[in-house]
Amino acid sequence: MATVQDLKRRIRSVGNTQKITKAFELVASARLRRAESRIEAMRPYADRMLELMGITAQAAGSVRLPLLERREEVTRVVLLPITADRGLAGAFNAQVLRRAFALERELRGQGVEVKWLVAGRRGRSTLTFRGYELIQAWQGFSERPEYGDAQAIARRAAELYANHEVDRVVVVYNRYKSPLVQLVTVQDLLPIPEKLIEGSEEQAEQTELRSDFIYEPEPEQILERLLPVYVETELYRALLESAASEQGARATAMRSASKNAGELISNLTLAMNRARQAEITQEILEVVAGADALTA
Q: Which of 165, 181, 192, 295 has the fewest CB neighbours in a 10 Å radius?
């Protein structure tokens, strides 16, 4: 049975851990608010980009561009999981990698060769530990990604696709819904989905209304410049969603850890009080026994 001093040391140790987890929770909550504001600021730009690309594609008509080319047979696919650079975020990293590995098994079962790009130190270390060969890895910006980070990843992915080194690029990341809920999302990045190029009925109506517009340069050239920007924008959106999800998952995990530490302190305090009571009772019994021995 643990002594009172042992229990006091454990209570002090758990209390120190609880202070750390509470500090992590406060930091993650503050960063989460900033990440949410960045996502809100990004959405109008991304929506406008999709609208502009759809309208330009409608005006350009049928065009052949490398990023729009759809391969008749998909034999090589590159998976791009977006993970965090740090842990202490619950199942944030594990659920992305678990989904990526499941997708890999599914593709290999279809006879497709799978290659890997990865963003985040955790994803890189896990894939390296499992013996996977990485085409390229990026790290150091998971908590606060910049547009330049998305550009670097997008250019490499577009290069692989345009050079026919892969036939499909798939991104796996956590989409932010709330601090308690992060949804693992699988998104085809390349080739660019046809529905985005075909546009909606509303975009078709807008194109018809703007049929008398003069494009400079030609719509085909504008679309060729917009497609890489679209890929960059989609990756930047995924990075921001992942960053917000990371902070939400970390805040939730640290809140749960703090709660568990509080419960453990309560249990240890109860055990310490019982141990102290047992010691006092034992001392009383020893005093009574000594008194009885003197009077006997």
A: 295
